[in-house]
């Protein structure tokens, strides 16, 4: 049993059986133990500046890594803002903070500067944490650590159960976290999400070290922590579900106009765009190009529950798209900034197709030896780009430089470069 599992077993966690199992973890004989209550109970929600100041002081005085999580209201509200922030640190306990009542948590972020933050699937939470002033300088991602260590299931519940031997209740993951006040069962769930996160981090660190992968993981975590904010997606309307059915430029213009109208309404009302108008309805209207409200009302997604005024605003959007001159219509497809789809390589460049086939086979074999997913060994997009347009000189120095140029980490360059040199040197 690892030290982290000892810690979990000795921390007086409240479970259905009253005590944790003697030896928690994936090697345990017997059923895992449900974790039903935070060890200090459910903390009060921090919703005013005075209480926030006390939390900042407590967490600044704490020791060791800090577990961090955030809950959003995806599917209910516009955007991806945080509606609850959970933290836990040795010496400070657990805190639940309402970022609606306390929208500026930069003071807390500064108090934790230099402290390692432990998150699960960090890239999901970092954007919404950044919005409220919380940006880690160091982090440990338990989901990514699980991938690198070769765990087949890397969700938080699966990892806590497999590594520490406790079952987390996950029934509230998709609720509307913008609800106020938050129900007690939801708060219990939120507190338990950070209850064992540091214990999990400690166990995974030991496992990665045992496998000789700890330095690789640290490079990955540094890359996440130092990554700049993502650029806004160009032409986000092109990601409308069902777009593959839309072929003509005039129809594309209808999708764009309806999507942008929906987005403005959703932002103004602070609701998920899908609650304003479904993607299915947008595509239906684009394909049909309705000439009036009566025709529009007969389309899927514009049924009898939609009022006349709403129908008129959607019809107006369709009419605006129909009135555009040809020069203002969107082009089919997005500008290609990289190699073509691999399925087209055999016709466009058979030698490149052969290089890609060899590279994929080599990366697959390497990933199997390392017992980790191929996409964590090296980005598939990076492999495609190098195979489509190899460096002028196919040697380890040139290929390694190309990998670095595409953002590969040093550990990836060291392992993948020989594989790609062999693939790029192979004759078709």
UniProtKB/TrEMBL annotation:
Sequence ranges assigned to domain HRDC in this UniProt record: 248-328
Bias type Polar residues, positions: 1-18
Stored InterPro entries: 3'-5'_exonuclease_dom (IPR002562), Exo_C (IPR041605), HRDC-like_sf (IPR010997), HRDC_dom (IPR002121), HRDC_dom_sf (IPR044876), RNase_D-like (IPR051086), RNaseH-like_sf (IPR012337), RNaseH_sf (IPR036397)
Domain of life: Bacteria
SUPFAM superfamilies assigned: HRDC-like, Ribonuclease H-like
Signal sequence residues: none
Designated name of the protein: Ribonuclease D
Originating species: Streptomyces olivaceoviridis (Streptomyces corchorusii)
């Amino acid at each position: 049993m690892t030290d982290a599992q000892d810690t979990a077993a000795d921390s007086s966690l409240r479970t259905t059986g009253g005590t944790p199992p003697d030896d928690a973890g994936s090697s345990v004989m017997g059923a895992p133990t449900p974790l039903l209550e935070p060890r200090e109970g459910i903390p009060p929600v921090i919703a005013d500046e005075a209480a926030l100041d006390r939390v900042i002081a407590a967490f600044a005085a704490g020791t060791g890594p800090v577990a961090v999580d955030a809950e959003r209201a995806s599917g209910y509200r516009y955007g991806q803002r945080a509606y609850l922030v959970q933290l836990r640190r040795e010496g400070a306990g657990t805190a639940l903070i309402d970022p609606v009542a306390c929208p500026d948590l930069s003071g807390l972020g500064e108090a934790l500067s230099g402290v390692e933050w432990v998150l699960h699937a960090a890239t999901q939470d970092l954007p919404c944490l950044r919005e409220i002033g919380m940006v880690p300088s160091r982090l440990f991602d338990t989901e990514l650590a699980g991938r690198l260590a070769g765990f087949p299931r890397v969700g938080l519940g699966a990892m806590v159960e497999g590594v520490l031997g406790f079952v987390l209740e996950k029934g509230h993951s998709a609720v509307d976290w913008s609800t106020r006040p938050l129900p007690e069962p939801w708060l219990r769930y939120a507190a338990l999400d950070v209850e064992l996160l540091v214990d999990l981090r400690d166990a995974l660190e030991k496992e990665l070290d045992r496998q000789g992968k700890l330095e690789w993981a640290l490079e990955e975590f540094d890359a996440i922590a130092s990554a700049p904010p993502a650029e806004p997606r160009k032409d986000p309307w092109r990601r409308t579900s069902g777009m593959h059915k839309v072929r003509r430029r005039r129809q594309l213009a209808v999708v764009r106009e309806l999507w942008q109208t929906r987005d403005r309404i959703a932002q103004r009302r602070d609701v998920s765009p899908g609650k304003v108008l479904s993607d299915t309805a947008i595509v239906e209207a684009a394909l049909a190009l309705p000439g009036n409200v009566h025709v529009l009302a007969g389309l899927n997604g514009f049924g009898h529950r939609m009022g006349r005024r709403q129908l008129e605003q959607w019809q107006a959007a369709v009419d605006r798209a129909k009135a555009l001159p040809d020069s203002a219509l969107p082009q089919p497809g997005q500008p290609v900034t990289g190699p073509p789809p691999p399925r087209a390589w055999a016709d466009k460049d058979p030698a490149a197709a052969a290089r890609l086939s060899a590279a994929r086979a080599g990366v697959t074999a390497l990933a199997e030896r390392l017992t980790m997913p191929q996409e964590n060994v090296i980005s598939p997009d990076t492999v495609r780009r190098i195979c489509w347009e190899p460096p002028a000189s196919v040697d380890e120095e040139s290929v390694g430089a190309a990998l670095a140029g595409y953002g590969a980490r040093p550990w990836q360059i060291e392992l993948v470069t020989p594989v790609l040199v062999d693939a790029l040197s192979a004759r078709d």
